[in-house]
Known about the structure:
- The protein is of the alpha/beta class.
- The protein has one domain: Rossmann fold.
- The chain is built from 9 helices and 7 strands.
- The model has no long low-confidence stretch (mean pLDDT 96).
- S-adenosylmethionine is lined by residues 10-12, 55-57, 60-61, 78-81, 84, 104-106, 121-123.
Amino acid sequence: MKKLYPESGVELTPFISKYYDNLLNLISFGKYERFIRRAIADMNINPDDEILDFGCGTGKNSCLMMQYLSDEGTITGLDISEIMERQYNEKCKNYPQAKFIRQRIDIPFDPEHLYDKVFISFVLHGFPQEVREQIIANAFAHLKPGGTFNILDFAEFDMKKMPVYYRLPFKWGECPYAFAFIERDLKEMLRKAGFNSFEEKLYFHNYARLMIARKP
Ligand SMILES: C[S@@+](CC[C@H](N)C(=O)[O-])C[C@H]1O[C@@H](n2cnc3c(N)ncnc32)[C@H](O)[C@@H]1O
């Protein structure tokens, strides 16, 4: 598949898409799984929540979120990748309330249904700023009043102050959009889109953050 944004690190190659979960576990020395479980626990998922997972990838996160839901709750994963779609359907096959839709999240799309939560994990940083703003607007449009946008991604930090053993992998592994993202005020972006109340949790020596932004 041709990249829409040539410098993006979140439009993955077929190889990375196929082995995404294993690669993350490998480069994080097995810490990624525990981190993602903690962040999902911090989202305060209600048993009957209807959740949209933007750029859902392999379905690993959707399956973890399913564990907090009753039969009333649902998860809808959106992604552009056929390889991710196959993995999602296989991983979530025991959860009839989890479904995958092939949908770009970087363009406006019809909010046929309103959700309690929109979740986006390590996707937002990988786009130009105007595209990030469109993704945030899409999340806002798809939420019920009082619903929350849960953004798990890099926090704001100064790359120059990172210890070298974190700085080098970040510099080599991430894309130029990520370098710009860590210098941006995410709360300000969300406020501009209409969100008005915020809660933040920090992880991985404060380099990763879950931002929970509420729609009025
Ligand atoms: C870095 S991965 C993160 C996957 C997952 N959120 C996670 O945390 O494991 C980025 C994901 O975003 C998807 N993606 C990239 N561009 C997209 C777009 N424009 N619309 C929807 N999904 C997109 C990719 O296919 C990939 O699955």
